[in-house]
Specification:
About 6% of the residues have low confidence. This protein is mainly alpha-helical. It contains three helices and no strands. The longest helix is centred in the first third of the chain and has 34 residues. The radius of gyration is 18 Å and the shape is globular.
Length: 141
């Protein structure tokens, strides 16, 4: 059980750091666009995003194979493309993959540790409590 807790913590720290990086870089790109429009290139951003998506899909397929139920190659690719579209949306850029409009793992959102709240009491311990008004619940599946 202790190893599970450590793995859970590591994944949550990685997730927190990744979300921090996304926010920082989105803000940097928006500021560059505003303050130095001659440096801003939407075409370059789209090319870089496409390359990143291809590399991430290839890596994910290599690491996960198709050994995790519900995480087949098609879902991995669609999730990565959906996430890229979400990141581009943060920048006010139209989706790179307009045919991918849905998160194939939406059902897993409720298992995430948003803002440090743990609510799957069967598998982890509470590390932070928040007021119910601060919680962002969603019934969208």
């Amino acid at each position: 059980m202790h190893e599970k807790w450590l793995t859970d913590r590591m994944i949550n720290y990685i997730r927190r750091d990744e979300l921090t990086h996304v926010t920082i870089f989105a803000n940097l790109i928006k500021e560059i666009k505003k303050e130095f429009p001659e440096m801003y290139s939407e075409k370059l951003i789209l090319e870089m995003m496409d390359t990143a998506v291809k590399q991430e899909v290839k890596w994910s397929k290599h690491i996960l194979w198709e050994k995790i139920i519900g995480m087949g190659h098609e879902n991995i690719e669609n999730y990565t493309k959906w996430l890229a579209n979400e990141r581009l949306n943060m920048l006010g850029i139209k989706p790179l993959y307009p045919d991918v409009i849905k998160n194939p793992y939406k059902h897993l959102d409720r298992l995430q540790d948003n803002n440090g709240e743990k609510w799957n009491f069967f598998e982890s311990t509470v590390t932070n409590y928040a007021q119910s008004s601060a919680m962002k619940w969603s019934w969208d599946f």
